[in-house]
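Need residues for this backbone.
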């Protein structure tokens, strides 16, 4: 029998918390002002919190965490011009949030090794740690590694004291080495000091090293001897050569490889990787200034990587023969980006259109492609759903119109500076998008 006298006040706390879970932040804040009961439930159900980590935060920590006492994911961010919280505040936070599993620190420059060490001893359940523009050093990092048994992801960017040439202490795996699955290092001057940590993380799946100074060949040679389960590797703006890639070839389970602006890597190194990494699904290459990777390396990719689904080529000169082999052998290829290549013209686009039957997304940027290439796409690639054309001066509104007329469900993104006057002639078709953003993923 239904009780028609029930009101929202009779709703169990768990149900009300579930409702709050689906509300955007502003609506949640407004709901918390309705009554004390809603204020309490909203605070209890709040598991993610972002705080401005200026020094005056220390005086209100108790009241903040009295309300939000179920926080498991915490972000502490301070702007560069302000003084951040210090060790005492961080230790207090660790006492209020003993169940913390994720922590992000940004520009908390007043934190020292001693404070981070005490924090790590109190928050042993930590699973993800992201540090950027902080000033503690190797001792603090080792404190985290020695106490956080369940740590799975570590991201470090511009850790300023570690880059100090006067410090020689290395970062060791500690107890966290058995659990770590992802390590990301960015903008580090002496990032090689993390080599013992990386090598000691036997179950590491993802490794990202971006804009880190120094020679990384020896580091990667040591790492790949000890870490055999690597699935994803990102190397960007890094001093690595074919020696490092030859060592990486020992990771036979590699599925994702990014070689971006690594000028010393050539066809030889790429071939050594793909000949043994037959499970490769995603490959991004930026030839940058030297363009030492070209048809020869990509033909090796075509011969050895039948599972390839995503390919991004930037400043890589590939010809029709290379594309023909890729199209024939990589039948699962769904996403393709061709950027900044003088060898990609209408003939190459026609080859893609004729043979890449699984292709769903295509990006063409700064290539000598014309309307003839667009017409080829109009009758090829039966599964194509999205095309981006940027900085291709030979593509006009006529070519795009032909493409859209032939493919009713296709979405076409056009480079705004090139076609802003042409779009007016195409009406208000919602499938035509003017793209002005810079630095986006070319195949998203």
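Answer:
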């Amino acid at each position: 029998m239904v009780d028609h006298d029930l009101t929202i006040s009779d709703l169990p706390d768990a149900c009300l918390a579930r409702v709050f879970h689906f509300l955007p932040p502003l609506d949640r804040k407004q709901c918390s002002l309705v009554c004390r009961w809603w204020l309490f439930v909203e605070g209890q159900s709040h598991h993610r919190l972002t705080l401005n980590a200026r020094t005056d935060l220390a005086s209100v920590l108790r009241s903040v965490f009295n309300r939000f006492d179920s926080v498991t994911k915490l972000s502490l961010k301070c702007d560069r011009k302000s003084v951040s919280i210090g060790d005492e505040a961080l230790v207090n936070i660790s006492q209020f949030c003993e169940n913390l599993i994720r922590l992000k620190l940004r520009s908390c420059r007043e934190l020292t090794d001693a404070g981070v060490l005490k924090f790590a001893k109190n928050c042993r359940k930590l699973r993800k740690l992201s540090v950027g523009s902080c000033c503690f050093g190797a001792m603090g990092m080792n404190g985290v590694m020695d106490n956080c048994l369940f740590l799975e992801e570590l991201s470090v960017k511009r850790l300023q004291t570690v880059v100090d040439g006067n410090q020689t202490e290395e970062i060791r795996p500690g107890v966290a080495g058995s659990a770590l699955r992802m390590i990301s290092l960015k903008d580090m001057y002496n990032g090689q000091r993390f080599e013992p940590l990386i090598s000691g993380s036997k179950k590491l799946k993802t490794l990202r090293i971006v804009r880190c100074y120094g020679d990384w060949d020896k580091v990667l040679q040591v790492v790949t001897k000890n870490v055999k389960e690597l699935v994803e590797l990102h190397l960007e703006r890094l001093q690595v050569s074919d020696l490092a890639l030859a060592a990486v070839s020992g990771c036979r389970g590699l599925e994702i490889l990014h070689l971006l602006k690594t000028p010393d890597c050539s066809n030889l190194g790429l071939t050594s990787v793909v000949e043994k990494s037959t499970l490769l699904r995603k490959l991004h290459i930026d030839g940058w200034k030297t363009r030492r990777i070209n048809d020869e390396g990509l033909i090796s990719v075509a011969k050895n990587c039948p599972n390839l689904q995503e390919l991004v080529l930037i400043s890589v000169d590939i010809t029709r023969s290379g594309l023909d082999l890729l199209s024939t052998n990589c039948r699962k290829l769904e996403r393709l980006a061709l950027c900044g290549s003088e060898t990609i013209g209408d003939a190459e686009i026609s080859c893609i259109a004729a043979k890449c039957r699984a292709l769903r997304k295509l990006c063409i940027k700064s290539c000598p492609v014309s309307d003839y290439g667009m017409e080829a796409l109009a009758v090829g690639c039966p599964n194509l759903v999205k095309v981006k054309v940027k900085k291709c001066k030979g593509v006009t509104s006529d070519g795009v119109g032909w493409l859209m007329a032939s493919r009713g469900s296709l979405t076409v993104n056009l480079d705004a500076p090139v076609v802003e006057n042409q779009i007016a002639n195409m009406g208000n078709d919602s499938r035509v998008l003017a793209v002005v953003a810079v630095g986006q993923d070319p195949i998203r």
